[in-house]
Amino acid sequence: MSTQTEQHAPQGREPLDVHDPRLSRFDIVTEGARRDDIEIVHYEEQVVPGSKAERRLTRTVAAMFLLTGLAATAFLVVYIWWPWEYEPGRGGDKWYTPLLGLTLGVALLGIGFGILTWGKKLLPKEVSIQDRHDGPGSAEDRKITGETMLYLADEMGVRRRPLLGVSLVAGLLPVGAVAAAPLVGGLISNPHKNNQMFTTGFAPADGKKIRLVREDGRPIRPADVSTGGQLTVFPGIEHGVSNKHADSPTLLIHLRESDAEKSRQANSRVGHGDYMWGNYAAYSKICTHAGCPASLYEQQTNRLLCPCHQSQFLITDNARPVFGPASRRLPQLPIEVDEEGFFVAKSDYTETVGPDFWERP
Amino acid sequence: MKRRKFDVAAVPGKAAGGVDDRFQVATPLRKLLNKVFPDHWSFLLGEIALFSFVVLLLTGVFLTFFYEPAMTEVVYNGSYAPLRGTPMSAAYASSLDISFDVRGGLIMRQMHHWSALLFMAAIVVHMMRVFFTGAFRKPRETNWIIGSLLFWVGFLAGFSGYSLPDDGLSGTGLRIASGIMLSIPVVGSWVTSSIFGGEFPGEIIISRFFIAHVLLIPGLLVALISAHLGLVFKQKHTQWPGPGRTNDNVVGERMFPRYALKQGGFFMVVFGVIALMGGLFQINPIWYFGPYEAWVVSAASQPDWYVMFLDGSTRLMPAWEINIPIGNGYVIPPLFWPTVVLPGILVGLSTLYPFVEARQLKDYRHHNLLQRPRDVPARTAVGAMAVAFYIVLTLSGANDVIADKFHISLNAMTWAGRIGLLIVPPLAYYVTYRICLGLQQHDREVLAHGVETGIIRRLPDGRFEEVHQPLSAGDGHGHGELDYVGWVVPKKMNRLGALGPAIRGFFYPIEKPVEAPVSPGHPPVEPRPEREEIGSGDSRR
Fold first, then answer.
1. Are B521 and B478 contacting, i.e. CB atoms less than 8 angstroms apart?
2. pLDDT higher than threshold 60 for residue B526
3. What tens digit of pLDDT does each residue of B185-219 get?
4. pLDDT band at A205 (very low <50, low <70, confident <90, very high)
5. Are B449 and B468 in contact (CB under 8 A)?
6. What is the pLDDT of residue A162?
7. Is the bond preceding residue B201 a cis peptide, omega within 30 degrees?
């Protein structure tokens, strides 16, 4: 067992002549380390060369590398020949990704643990001490660098010729703005174009009232929604049922008689007395908090819950927020039934739909 | 003509000479080969982040070959039958294709997602290690700031990538993000409209997120990570105190070969674990969520874990709306505080902490030695407070799931979170502080009286007392004179080499010679002579 343990060498020793043929390779390594202010204070073989332990470790590492080869080959076999195309049901293709992961993982872990074992168990252990040298630069160097930089300023002569400095700043500031302008100018987009933040798909077009339609585009008769039931409805316009009108989805609710009475009273308190049609009320589905669809309607309590942040709105009280982070009630859509017997919106929403923002009136 | 002999053995030497003639590498290379690194398991946490980032780059490049960053409406016609004929964005359709119609695409997608989660987790745990051990102190404040920026840039990388598949779940996340931008006072609507190119969702956001996710943010991450590593290299790693270790040296191993080998092996292990996770554990099965439709959402819509604390803070925020009655009236919605102000405060607090602490302690010296968390109770307790705050928020981000699984009222969960957010952190501060003091005291006790041996002695007068093994010669009354040096105090007899380690070996016992208490830098005590392996008799031939 070769164990070299030595004490800290005194500073300022003579450098070794590395061309001396009597020096071993390790001597030269030690000398090199010393020149980088490193003292190898402890260096110890972990396994006796030729020992049983060494042979066992070598076999272990080799086995891990061979396992890697095996797993990598298995990966390729699976990748090429295993059926991978999706089929409904419980086909073999469901095993494709797990098998790839398993074989790739084992292959990589094999190399990983092989190298780790090699490094940790077979290589000599050492303790080296290196000087940190993290103090400040020498006072002299600081002085020299500082003076050099100040001299640069002197050479430029900005202090003597102040006009240069002023004109440079005055000239460069607009250049900086030029760099930023195309980016900002290109991106900027007026949020109030076409009054888009305050209108939805239900705004009457050419004086014609917009129908409420289902997801498949069919209009809705009152009889289509059973008592206590609710239906997500959309404006009956082109692209009305799409993300192009992300603010328009509305919940049409058929309230029970007693709840409808409560609702009507609450409505008239805020001047929405004629917003309901019979026992039917329509509220925006877009939560006034962060814009998720508030879609979980609890029939018994008439509460509408938004699953994103759990704001709860009491439908029988103008969809007032009763719990959670939302601070504003859901806007109500005034509805009626047209001469053909289908639901239409009397007008657009009279309040702003969707999450709150600064200039919302 | 005489042919010159070609000396194969001299080729490497000659080539190396040639390289050095041209580039003068011998000296810098020697310095690199020789550089000493201290070693401790906790120093590996940051490397998990680094290695997952490498996996992210590799798998991410693969994904870009097949992903189409467009919101053009297409009708899905791929292999996944349940969605065939559904109109959806090209982005979602191509994400489905990666999952079903690209050979090996699903495992790449899942590995990408898992390594992103691992990246963020490793950053957080690494940050905790740096904080609790005081590794952020002078001269490393800059690297601490870069590190905390890396968390937030990683957060943006994660969120932008999460949004790209444009499925039902991520679209809802994007909707909330637009709500958050809208909530910013004065400029909110302009910011949102400019980023989304009009009203939500517009038709451009996916392409913009794509270029941010594959170019801008990774570029920033690469730059920050390079600076981070460069500074670690330049300033040299911190080390734990111990024999031979001072503020002015680094005690450890030279970079090559052992340290580098261990790093390489560890990278492969991290890579392998990600591969296993990517193959075996399903993540983000976008085909179940369907395309994003503004009117569809389901309960238990949780974001990735590192976003959950913001989700939680949003859920806990009371509905406090500030109205400013000027003109038509202006509003600061409640959404603004937990999602814009809170992260701002967190960034400020974390980046400023090193300077605040230095000012508080009037300590402006260089610190290259780490501190055990117990030795700085105030800092450890502040850290515990931050962790408690974060955990309450993260749990609240899943409070609907918790309420559902444990049959608790959802409103009760929200109130528990609100109250917990105020009470738990101070409690964590107090408890941590007391634990630190207790641990300190026990260290001093052992240094003064010795290690508990577990041997009970009966005195002539009938009393019982435990025999203590003093750690030093002492003053004759069983009291040692050892000073606490900021490192582990042995508290069990086998840490003193008195007892052999537990029997090792899987099929047959292997008895190993006792090792001295491990403390690199301290020459070990003379090892016991090698002994033959002792078999258990009949179990071996």
1. no
2. no
3. 999 999 999 999 999 999 999 999 999 999 999 99
4. confident
5. yes
6. 86
7. yes
Could you tell me if B201 and A243 are in contact, meaning their C-beta atoms sit under 8 angstroms apart? yes
Per-residue pLDDT tens over the stretch A146-199: 999 999 988 888 788 889 889 989 999 999 889 889 888 899 999 998 888 899
- A107 lies in the same domain as A216: no
For residue A82, the number of C-alpha atoms closer than 13 Å in the C-beta half-sphere is 21
Q: Minimal Cα distance from B262: which residue of A?
A: A116
Interface test with A, best of B33, B178, B297 (most A CBs within 10 A): B297
Q: Using the beta-carbon criterion (under 8 Å), do B269 and A321 form an inter-chain contact?
A: no
φ, ψ for residue A231, nearest 5 deg: -145, 135
Residue A221 belongs to some domain of the structure:
yes
Looking at chain B, which residue has its C-alpha nearest residue A28?
B30
* Cα–Cα distance for residue pair B116/B161, rounded to 1 Å: 9
Cβ pair B295:A84 closer than 8 A: no
Give the mean pLDDT of chain A: 90
Distance in angstroms (rounded) separating the CA atoms of residues B504 and B508: 8
The domain of B64 spans: 32-242+251-304+340-345
Which residue in the set B106, B252, B335 is minimally distant from A289, CB to CB?
B335
Question: In the structure, what pLDDT confidence band is assigned to residue B242 with cuts at 50, 70 and 90?
Answer: confident
Tokens of B362: 């009037």
Question: What count of Cα atoms within 13 Å lies in the side-chain half-sphere of residue A133?
Answer: 11
Q: Do the Cβ atoms of A85 and B179 come within 8 Å?
A: no
Q: Which amino acid is at B510?
A: I
Tens digit of each residue's pLDDT (9 = 90 or more) over A288-341:
999 999 988 888 899 999 999 999 999 999 999 999 999 999 999 999 999 999
Reported ipTM: 0.91
Q: What pLDDT score was predicted for residue B135? A: 96
Q: Is the predicted pLDDT of residue B516 greater than 80, yes or no?
A: no
Q: List Cα–Cα distances, A339 to A218, A219, B97, B155, in angstroms.
A: 16, 13, 48, 55
Say yes or no to pLDDT of B440 above 50. yes
Q: Scanning every residue of chain B, which has its alpha carbon at the shortest distance from the alpha carbon of A308?
A: B301
Closest residue of chain A to B267, computed from CA coordinates: A112
User: How many C-beta neighbours within 10 Å does residue A350 have?
Assistant: 14
- Tell me the backbone φ, ψ of residue B75, rounded to 5 degrees: -105, 125
The residue length of chain B stands at: 541
CA distance to partner chain B, nearest, from residue A14 (Å): 19
Specify the CATH number for the domain of residue A220.
2.102.10.10
pLDDT digits (tens, 9 = 90+) for A46-71: 898 889 999 999 999 999 999 999 99
Domain span at residue A128 reads 1-132
Q: Are A119 and A5 in the same domain? A: yes
Angle (CA) B371-B494-B481 rounded to 5° is 55
- The verdict on residue A137 lying in a domain is no
Q: Which tokens in the block code for residue B470?
A: 């003093």
* B228 falls within a domain: yes
Q: Which of B113, B170, B182, B515 should one mutate to test binding to chain A, selecting the residue with the greatest count of A CBs within 10 A?
A: B182
Domain count, chain B: 1
